[in-house]
Amino acid sequence: EENVWKLCSLVQENCPSSELLKCFCVFISNDCRQIPLWHQKASKNAERLVIWDYHVIFVYHDGKNTLVYDLDTELSFPCTLKEYAAACIGDETILRDEYKRLLRVISASEFLHTFASDRSHMLDDRNQWLAPPPEYPPIKCPNTNNNIQEFISMDKTIRHGEVFNLQEFLHKFNIHLCGMK
C-alpha cells in the first residue's frame, strides 16, 4: 500500500494533472482475508502461489490500455491487466468461496488524500516488525494516523472507492477474458 501511495504521489508531482485521473489504487482482499495470487516473488512453491490477507496494486487506465504495476509479481513491470488477471488472479470458478477475491478501486487522488497507516499492521503479537519498515515516515492524512483497515475491508458501505467482484472489476477496465468468471 505504501509503494502504491508513493507511485500515486510520484505521478501527482511529475505529470500533468490529467494523468493522475488515469491512476487507481486497488486493494484485493475478501471477508476471510485469504486471497490466492499466482506468480508472486514471495512464493516458495512451483505454482508461485501465495495466499495473502490482502494485496495492493497500482492500475493505469488511459481508456485504451490498462497496465498493472505490482512490485510483488514475477510478471513484467508493468504488465497489462489482461495478462495480470489471467496469470496472477486466475479463474474464480476453480476457487472455494472463501478464496474469491473482491477488489476495492480507489482513484489515485482520493487515495493520496485519505489513506493513512501507522504501520501497526506490520507488528506481530510481541510488537516486533514482521518485516523491516520503510525508512521514510508513515503516511498520514489530516483526519487520522491509521485507517488502513478501512481500505482492506471489502465492506461496500465504507466510503473509500468502490468494491467490485472480479467480473465487475474487469468490466470497469474493459477487459474480457475467455473462460474467466
Automatic annotation (TrEMBL):
Residues 1-173 form the Protein N-terminal glutamine amidohydrolase alpha beta roll domain. Coiled coil: none annotated. It holds the Pfam family Nt_Gln_amidase. Its EC number is 3.5.1.122. Keywords: Hydrolase. GO terms for molecular function: protein-N-terminal asparagine amidohydrolase activity; protein-N-terminal glutamine amidohydrolase activity. GO terms for cellular component: cytosol; nucleus. InterPro entries: N_Gln_amidohydro_ab_roll_sf, NTAQ1, Prot_N_Gln_amidohydro_ab_roll. It catalyses: N-terminal L-glutaminyl-[protein] + H2O = N-terminal L-glutamyl-[protein] + NH4(+). The keyword Hydrolase applies. Mediates the side-chain deamidation of N-terminal glutamine residues to glutamate, an important step in N-end rule pathway of protein degradation. Conversion of the resulting N-terminal glutamine to glutamate renders the protein susceptible to arginylation, polyubiquitination and degradation as specified by the N-end rule. Does not act on substrates with internal or C-terminal glutamine and does not act on non-glutamine residues in any position. Monomer. Belongs to the NTAQ1 family. This is Protein N-terminal glutamine amidohydrolase. It comes from Candidula unifasciata.
